[in-house]
């Protein structure tokens, strides 16, 4: 099984193309843009796309799902990702760790809702912020 593990960053994404049958892996970098991520997934043809959950993970999962790829979003609050449990923390090491844990099915994952659900939640959160701001103006 080919696994494409992504360590997403604000400007660049480090990827690890991991072959679970023989353990071979290859690292690389792409810009963190929808086009670059789409082209990466198309060119590497993975069976599964694995990434850490973060603020930009939603659109990456949307792209992978649209291409028919299995996706996993890792829960970063799990003990495996805590600083005190990790001796060396680099983007490459994180991507390789994602791929290896996914291969062994030991990756603690979270559910990534569909785009329309995420948009609705963001709208509700924005409305709550506006109401709180309005109330503080009235009371202040």
TrEMBL record:
It holds the Pfam family DEDD_Tnp_IS110. Residues 6-139 form the Transposase IS110-like N-terminal domain. Coiled coil: none annotated. GO terms for biological process: DNA transposition. InterPro entries: Transp_IS110-like_N, Transpos_IS110. PANTHER family: TRANSPOSASE FOR INSERTION SEQUENCE ELEMENT IS1111A. This is Transposase IS110-like N-terminal domain-containing protein. It comes from marine sediment metagenome.
């Amino acid at each position: 099984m080919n696994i494409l593990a992504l360590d997403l960053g604000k400007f660049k994404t480090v990827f690890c193309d991991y072959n679970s049958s023989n353990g071979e892996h290859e690292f690389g970098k792409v810009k963190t843009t929808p086009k670059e991520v789409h082209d990466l997934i198309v060119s590497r043809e993975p069976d599964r796309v694995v990434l850490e959950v973060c603020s930009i993970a939603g659109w990456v999962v949307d792209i992978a799902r649209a291409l028919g790829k299995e996706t996993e979003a890792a829960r970063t609050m799990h003990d495996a990702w805590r600083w005190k449990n990790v001796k060396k923390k680099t983007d490459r090491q994180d991507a390789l760790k994602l791929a290896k844990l996914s291969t062994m099915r030991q990756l603690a994952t979270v559910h990534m809702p569909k785009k329309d659900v995420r948009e609705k939640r963001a709208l509700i959160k924005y409305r709550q912020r506006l109401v709180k701001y309005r109330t503080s103006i009235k009371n202040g």
